[in-house]
Amino acid sequence: MNLEIVGRHIEITPAMRDFAFDKLRKLEKLLDGPLEVHLVLLVEKHRQLAEIQVKTRTAVLSGAEETGDLFASIPPDLIPTLEGFQLTGTFSFDLTSWGWVHLIVGVLVAVAGVFVLRGAVWARTVGVAVAAVSALLNFMWLPYYPVWSILIIAVDVLVIWALTAHGRDITR
Question: What is the pLDDT averaged over residues 91-111?
């Protein structure tokens, strides 16, 4: 676990660092792969706040806690919450698997494009379906590459519009 602790208006002592590391060690057991943990401890007049961000291979988790005691503020709710939380569903896929899925969908888009240029009506339907699947896959890719995903989703919408609005022009 890579733990980075930043203190704002407070000096981080070795005892604080050890306490935080021991408290956050459970995260390694709960989450798969290497972890990057960024912990910010903030002390103001009557306010003591801890903010945490945990990055894994498949997810980014964050939380904040404000109490009267700085040691109690170090994410008390995060670990029990994660113990009952399983990283399943769309965003927990291995990135290599998503790469292969994108490669296969890209090949389907290329094949449909060749047949669209030849004027096949069925290829326009396939092109719309593949562009819709591509947009859906890039929506799922948003947490990893947001700018690229939004760009590809916009291109997919443009392709769907072009294939449905101007498809008859190619067949004439």
Answer: 77
